[in-house]
Amino acid sequence: MSHASAPGLAAEDAAGRCGTAREGSTEQPRRCDVTLNGFAGQDDRRLSKRMVVALLAAACAFVVLGVVVVRGGGEDTGSRPAAAAGASEAAAAAQGTVDPGEGAPQLGGAAPGEDDASASPGAGDAAQPGATASGVVSGSAAADDGVAAPPPPVRPSPPPDYGEPVPPEARVPKPDAVRGIYLNAWAAGSRARRTALIELAEATEINAFVIDVKDATGYVSYRTRSELARQIGADRDIRIANIREVLDELRARGIYPIARIVVFKDPLLAERRPDLAIQRADGTVWVDHHGEKWVDPYNREVWDYNIELAREAVELGFSEIQWDYVRFPDVPQSYMREAVYPARQDRSRVQAIREFLTYSREELKDLGVPVTADVFGLTTSAGDDMGIGQKWEELVDVTDVLLPMVYPSHYARGSYGIDHPNSHPYTTVKTAIEHALRRTKGVEGAATIRPWLQDFTLGSPRYGPEYVRAQIRAVYDAGLTEWLLWNPGSRYTAAALAPEGGPAPDLPIPDPRPSQRAQARPDTVIKLLGEPVKLPVQDTLRR
Questions:
Q1: Domains of the chain by range and CATH?
Q2: Coil, helix or strand for 458?
């Protein structure tokens, strides 16, 4: 029997790549031999297309089954999106770019002065901790009520054995004035990058490193003993293979190590524990305008999780705790209206942030380390909480150090009467700090003010040594002595730094005089200490 005359084969080939016959046609299809294992050309060794498809399908099923077995039954599939986010952050860090996912307070967000956190309908209905808006107990699968079930649990990895905690006397003591740089976890975990940054510190005035313990992906940078972290798979994307080795090296060089812990922007915890997340009225997990999930800033279990990581960091040898993203999401008002905070209990945003800082400071008091917080640069001047729960007077007396992020690139045109703040780093930074000092004066037990400064380029002009040094000079001229430099890729401008034990570099200030006041649009004006100043309109704030 020839290939062409096989009953029904013409119609079968007509649907495939090899045949040319069409339904109702007498045209003979062209020959289409399928070979398998080297056999071809003999009628009894040819396989029909249908048989090949069946065999291929069976082979694919076998391969998929093998992958599932190798991966332990797919138990960790839920953590893959966050891992991909970690890779994206690493790529951004390598390029030295600012995280585009972190935005300025939005013009469409909560109205200035609004601080009752009641923009979300039904928030009061979900006030009981551990319950969703529909009354479903946290963590329970309730598809019948429209509440999404939590993802399958991750099989926890065994806890690491770090031995005895580093005793207080063995920690690096706080310098008289902290002058530091940020090391992302990838840089801290790379021996070559870390060595280069240590050499920079030893050759210049730098004496402190801020290192990621938990970043905005929710992953912990190193293996952790935290049971909750291991339950949610937060130790599945290790960036620092041997944290004790890193901290021992810094201790030997006298570099002050600061543990940066991102608190409320924790998409991994929100995904794995939706009962701890900001929710919608139907009990599903709320997402911001970038599709990111956040945990509930009112939730005590969220607080305790981060405090547990902080305690472990100190026991490993960190000398200071720095909270980041210690705030509510900065989102347009339309998104804010959808947000439900299950643990709110009628507290305001400002109360939640203040209570967390007070509580964490008290819980870590026995360790004898400073507990500090990063805040938006605008908090030094804004009259309200900008919808994120950060109000200067409510922060400055419940932290040991307060770190406003006064990056000139993050102030919109017209801020402080400066037409283009990014072109005037000295005036912008000095004015922001002066506002902070004015508001801190007379506050009992006020924190040290240690601003974050900009060592990266965002827009124009390009930030070279003179732009970085101008900010440092502004800090000193305003009466402060401490500062930190931020570059997301951990690549710093050595020419802007004073040599160890030597004078500051003699660099010109890019803005010798304040520029003419710019006209602010009415729809972008808020009150900053009685002055109309435009809010940033680009979505570029890092945290």
A1: 104-534 (3.20.20.80)
A2: coil
